[in-house]
């Protein structure tokens, strides 16, 4: 399976999962807050920050008809017009360079999701190392082709996409010259229910499209993301906020700094734990073998006495004969005096 290089970082099973902190609109259009988020993400150990590059006008139309109003009653943004929501959540273009520079100073990779061709050009001029295509844009093949043509890796969230939708997007990117593709399994509900996440899709997607696969996770907590690593996820993306109680358009399903730190730590532990198929214990377990059970003399046994369950016992440690020999040694006679606490050996018995 082809690994992907992003700004010198390998995305693949040979490296710990690549953890992305998605700032989204949780900065509430406050540059100082956005910079503080970048610094907190770095301190938490996140490997990258991601922005979203759009304006309200590049996302939708400023129209108040029902088509342009969120009408799902269980939505965090029920009743909001699309234009007003995107205007509230947008990251000003003039912030990008400063936020990217700060992230890089702190040792993180920084990039963004473009939502139109102008945004692709803008980000390309800022030398982003890759582009991220959001799940709702996976069907925007002209946008994918344009971004893919810039010669950078492409990360694409799949969201509600069908197998055919993903196939079209991957073919489009490859036809435009991009072979470094990472797909992110994603459930496009905000927040997402773990029961709708279907992590078992990850290895299937990897085999179907021959590329690295990760998870863009909108569930609460870190449990689903950690579990995704066991299914082969090599990238984990989670929305990030300094304080959920302080608000932010995506705060309800975003991680706070301590949680992001736990995510980085636990996904790496999960990755370390996968290993390979192995039986018989590892080298690290070698010393522990002495604490398994074996047959010991439990009472003093004079020469010639019969070995029985009254003078033998299966106990820890493992310096005597293995317990599988129990039925064989019972009934044999001691060929010399044997003291209590002696690990039983074949030489203690008459043939």
Give a short synopsis of this structure.
The protein is an alpha/beta fold. The protein contains eleven helices and twelve strands. Pfam families: NeuB (PF03102), SAF (PF08666).
Structural write-up:
- With 351 residues, the chain is α/β, with parallel strands linked by helices.
- The chain has 2 domains: 9-54 and 90-274, TIM Barrel; 283-348, Alpha-Beta Complex (Type Iii Antifreeze Protein Isoform Hplc 12), CATH 3.90.1210.
- The chain contains 11 helices and 12 strands.
- An 8-stranded parallel beta sheet has the order 5-4-3-10-9-8-7-6. A two-stranded antiparallel ribbon has the order 1-2. Strands 11-12 form a two-stranded antiparallel sheet.
- Helix 1 packs parallel to helix 4 (93-105).
- The chain starts with a strand and ends in a 22-residue tail after the last helix.
- The model has no long low-confidence stretch (mean pLDDT 94).
């Amino acid at each position: 399976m082809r690994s992907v290089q992003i700004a010198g970082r390998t995305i693949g099973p040979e490296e710990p999962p690549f953890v992305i902190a998605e700032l989204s609109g949780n900065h509430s259009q406050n540059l100082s807050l956005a910079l503080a988020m970048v610094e907190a993400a770095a301190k938490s150990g996140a490997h990258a920050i991601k922005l979203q590059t759009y304006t309200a006008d590049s996302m939708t139309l400023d129209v108040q008809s029902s088509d342009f109003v969120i009408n799902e009653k269980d939505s965090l943004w029920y009743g909001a017009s699309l234009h007003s929501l995107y205007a509230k959540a947008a990251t000003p273009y003039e912030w990008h360079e400063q936020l990217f520079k700060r992230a890089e100073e702190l040792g993180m990779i920084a990039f963004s999701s473009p939502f139109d061709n102008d945004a692709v050009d803008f980000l390309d001029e800022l030398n982003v190392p890759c582009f991220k295509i959001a799940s709702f844009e996976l069907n925007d093949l002209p946008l994918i082709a344009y971004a893919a043509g810039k010669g950078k890796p492409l990360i694409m969230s799949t969201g509600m996409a069908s197998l055919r939708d993903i196939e079209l997007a991957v073919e489009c990117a490859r036809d435009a010259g991009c072979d470094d593709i990472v797909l992110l399994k994603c459930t496009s509900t905000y927040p997402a229910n773990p029961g709708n996440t279907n992590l078992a899709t990850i290895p299937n997607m990897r085999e179907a499209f021959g590329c690295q696969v990760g998870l863009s996770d909108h569930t609460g907590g870190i449990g689903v993301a950690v579990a995704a690593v066991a299914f082969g996820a090599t990238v984990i993306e989670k929305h990030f906020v300094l304080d959920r109680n302080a608000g932010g358009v995506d705060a309800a399903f975003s991680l706070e700094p301590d949680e992001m730190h736990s995510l980085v730590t636990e996904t790496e532990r999960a990755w370390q734990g996968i290993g390979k198929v192995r039986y018989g214990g590892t080298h690290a377990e070698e010393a522990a073998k002495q604490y398994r059970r074996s047959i010991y003399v439990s009472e003093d046994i004079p020469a010639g006495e019969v070995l029985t369950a009254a003078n033998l016992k299966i106990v820890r440690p493992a310096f005597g004969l293995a317990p599988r020999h129990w039925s064989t040694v019972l009934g044999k006679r001691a060929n010399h005096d044997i003291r209590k606490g002696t690990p039983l050996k074949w030489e203690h018995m008459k043939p």
